[in-house]
Specification:
There is one protein chain. The chain is an alpha/beta fold and 354 residues long. The chain has 15 helices and 10 strands. It has helices at 4-11, 52-57, 76-90, 98-105, 109-120, 124-141, 146-152, 158-164, 173-177, 215-225, 239-253, 270-279, 290-296, 303-311, 338-353, and strands spanning 22-25, 30-32, 46-49, 61-62, 184-192, 195-201, 206-212, 230-232, 288-289, 324-325. The strands form 3 sheets. The protein has a 4-stranded mixed sheet. It has a 4-stranded mixed sheet with strand order 7-6-5-8, with helices on both faces. Helix 3 packs across helix 5 and helix 6 (124-141) runs antiparallel to helix 7. The longest helix has 18 residues, at 124-141.
Amino acid sequence: MNNPEMWNAVLARDASRDGSFVFAVRSTGIYCRPSCPARRPRREQVSFFQVPEAAEREGFRACRRCHPRRVESTDPHIDLVRSICHAIDENNEEQKTLKTLSEQTGVSAHHLQRTFKEVMGITPRQYAESQRLRKFKANVKDGASVTEAMYDAGYGSSRSLYEKSSAQLGMTPATYGRGGKGMQIVYTIADSRLGRLLVAATERGVCSVALGDSDSELTAKLFEEYPQASIDSKDTKISPSLNLWLSSVLDNLNGKTSRIDLPLDIQATAFQWRVWEELRQIPFGSTRSYQEIAKAIGKPNAVRAVARACASNHAALIIPCHRVIRGDKSLGGYRWGLERKKKLLQSEREQNRT
């Protein structure tokens, strides 16, 4: 959403537009109603969302000054979507089907699905799964055991957790430690505006996204990472998915999407996953310092460990480690080259302005 009328309403603190949209500020990670009395940010830092739930899904937090969630909408479509979100959020232990949501809201399943996707950009089922996984991760971060967090988030079994959270649960440490022995990896390489782009995957998901100057350089590093795996550029079983995943990465590089949500099959420690998850919460076009990431995961003294976790990232762009910089605003490091990091950040800022 990028409407000059909305920005004018924000500048004018137009209370009559409260409930019709919210605006989010990338530099603070907070979203507000149009009439919020807080100081106005620069335009390039602002994104618009039709409903608070959409802003929160992108990692923004509600303003404690204007309380945008408390505003009622005058748009029946927005009211419908928010009521669906509320029904899903309040009953995470019970999976809501389109049929039950249709009966609860009094509208047809087709109209419900279409309206929800128009406003939120995802289906009700996808929203429910993302909320369930978010609650699971929050519970674990708060100290709950995996089993306690799993059931509290509404997963009926560990199997359902693993199946529906594949973006977080990669290959086992034992498999990785054996150099990928027993794994089948297929890769493809394409041209991009940042040089050659390699995307590699297993049946479970993407295991590598890398940028380089030559195909030989990229493939050599992939074989070095998984010396015991079966690696090929052709695989009829995995290739169809791989081509779709490659397109998603290229779309992101070309400015067509601001986020890449793909299944990952990457081994990592619990600490690395916590860091990487925090990186995925950095809004498009924004940056965070290593110190800010360490503080956000509850480890303010682990700045060097955070930097190492960023450096160990094997999935460029999907896990946006390029958005982490030093406290003095210098770029810091980037395993695929500082010039590429500079171009990525500059491109994201320019896309936000337009």
